[in-house]
Amino acid sequence: MSKNRNLSASQRIPPLVAHLVSDRAKKALDVVEKFVEEDCIPTEGVWQTQLGTTTEQRFNTHPHVMEELKDKAKKLGLWNMFLPKNHFKEGAGFSNIEYGLMAEVLARSGLASEATNCAAPDTGNMEVLAKYGTDAQKKQWLAPLLNGEIRSAFLMTEPDIASSDATNINLRIVKEGNSWVLNGSKWWSSGAGDPRCKVYIVMGKNDPDNKNPYLQQSVILVPASTPGITIHRMLSVFGYDDAPHGHGHITFENVRVPLDHIVLGPGKGFEIIQGRLGPGRIHHAMRSIGAAEKALDYFIARINDPKKTTFGKPLHEHEIMVERLAKSRIEIDAARLIVLNAALAIDNGNAATAKKEIAQAKVLVPEALANTLDRAIQAWGAAGVCQDTPLANMWAHARTMRIVDGPDEVHLLQLGKNENKRAQVVIEKLEKQSKAKAAALSAKGLEKKDILYIGKSTGPGSKL
Ligand SMILES: Cc1cc2nc3c(=O)[nH]c(=O)nc-3n(C[C@H](O)[C@H](O)[C@H](O)COP(=O)(O)OP(=O)(O)OC[C@H]3O[C@@H](n4cnc5c(N)ncnc54)[C@H](O)[C@@H]3O)c2cc1C
After folding, report:
1. Same domain, yes or no, for 397 and 273?
2. The Acyl-CoA dehydrogenase/oxidase C-terminal domain covers which part of the protein (predicted)?
3. pLDDT 10s digit of each residue in the chain, 464 long?
4. How many whole angstroms separate alpha carbon 330 and alpha carbon 165?
5. What are the Cα distances from residue 229, in Å, to 94, 187, 243, 272?
6. Last residue of a domain, which of 406, 427, 458?
7. How far is residue 125's CA from residue 143's CA, in Å, rounded to a whole number?
8. Of the residues 267, 297, 314, which one is the last residue of a structural domain?
């Protein structure tokens, strides 16, 4: 094992995937790390202060210092790294594996993903536009998004239905003359609070009577300034407002957009959301690994704090703490491999062919992150649940990972059902093995014996 405990990001690449990472990506990875450590993390306090304190301020401005970070990131060539090179020509030319390693480092600062134009929900929305948009849609929305000039929101979830079953999505889309007319409610519209959010990608129902429930939905691009839209309130995440981004509760009342604002065509809603949510899920998972590493740093810092001893020794001399540290290291390293495996599956195919691997990462990684955060919070005692460390805020967001982009249960159900499709093959294989063993015994003139057979009996019972 290396004695150097301060390895750079490129030196920490897991050996299993190192050969899949180009020299250019390795260099960029170290530049990302330097940018995060030397520019983003030191700027976090300035950003918070510029954000303001009142709801009015926090959702009407965006901290100007973010634009300075974006300028610097662009100069360093750290821009749009999330768009994988084998699927899109518009990105920075990295694979999903390479971006996965970068996203992990970006997650160490709450500012870094946006500073490099790699922040959700824009990343997924840009993928939708790049993959399915017409030339006109790309010119109007993709170009300014790729340049970081505007932001966007993805509006699928609704307050009055169970949205994890997307066939329930109910916002009504009706064709009237040259327009689509939208009526309905959405909530958890992340990013809608930001004054720079100029476009909503809205999923709704245009063909409710179609016998195929997967062809009833469409996706429409709605400029945020279209008349008839009301953002009623922002929703908090365990009390955090996530400003200026926020999560909006929005209604649409006779919102009219031209017919060419539909994406891909009527009835293509499901196809589009499947294409969008796959990469979105893996990006969340990649960032969660970075968050887990950050939580582990806080854990280590606290258990080695010489000022805070209990029962005569620092926490790291209490064995239970070292054991927790080891468990976190194992869980994070395992989770990273699951994420990189999913990234590789997308690189080798696409998000649809990598569905299984993405679902595995979507379920496993938040668990690893939550476990490490829980241990770190515990080690910090009361300080861990307040604003003096980032742990409480990180925990709040980690907890949502088991719900966003479809709750765990839905992914587990799908994974379990697919795995169970092997049932017939498994049963036949085991029967074949059993018969083969019996045949091998008989070929040697032997009989199957249970060495634990005792056959001990008290004899027949007495007759009445
Ligand atoms: C921080 C945050 C950000 C979000 N951002 C966005 C966004 O930008 N855009 C957007 O459209 N949405 C967004 N969402 C919403 C999110 O995607 C939904 O909350 C999620 O899909 C679940 O839908 P629901 O809340 O309607 O829960 P429901 O569908 O009502 O499900 C409730 C619960 O039922 C259980 N359940 C569901 N299906 C099954 C099953 N098959 N088997 C067993 N149990 C099941 C699960 O425990 C689930 O949590 C966000 C949510 C959060 C918390």
Report:
1. yes
2. 267-417
3. 446 688 999 999 999 999 999 999 999 999 999 999 999 999 999 999 999 999 999 999 889 999 999 999 999 999 999 998 877 888 899 999 999 999 999 999 999 999 999 999 999 999 999 999 999 999 999 999 999 999 999 999 999 999 999 999 999 999 999 999 999 999 999 999 999 999 999 999 999 999 999 999 999 999 999 999 999 999 999 999 999 999 999 999 999 999 999 999 999 999 999 888 777 788 899 999 999 999 999 999 999 999 999 999 999 999 999 999 999 999 999 999 999 999 999 999 988 899 999 999 999 999 999 999 999 999 999 999 999 999 999 999 999 999 998 899 999 999 999 999 999 999 999 999 999 999 999 999 999 899 999 999 998 888 87
4. 34
5. 38, 13, 20, 23
6. 406
7. 12
8. 267
Ligand 1 atom closest to Cα of 203? 11
Closest atom, ligand 1, to C-alpha of 186: 11
The residue behind tokens 């939208």 is 182
How far apart, in whole angstroms, are the C-alpha atoms of residue 221 and residue 137?
Answer: 9
Clarify whether residues 89 and 202 are in a common domain: no
In a domain, 75, yes or no: yes
Q: Tell whether 385 is covered by a domain.
A: yes
CATH number at residue 326: 1.20.140.10
Query: What are the C-alpha distances in Å from 12 to residues 17, 23, 109?
Result: 11, 14, 19
For residue 275, the CA-to-ligand 1 centroid distance in Å is 18
**Which amino acids bring their CB within 6 angstroms of ligand 1?**
121, 154-157, 162-164, 188-190, 237, 247, 400, 403-407, 409-410, 413
pTM above 0.90, yes or no: yes
CATH number, position 230: 2.40.110.10
**What is the 239 CA–ligand 1 centroid distance (Å)?**
18
Strands 172-176 and 217-223: unpaired
* Neighbour count for residue 449 (Cβ, 10 Å): 8
Same domain membership, residue 214 and residue 179: yes
| Distance between Cα 280 and ligand 1 center (Å) | 15
If asked whether residues 247 and 282 sit together in one domain, one would say no
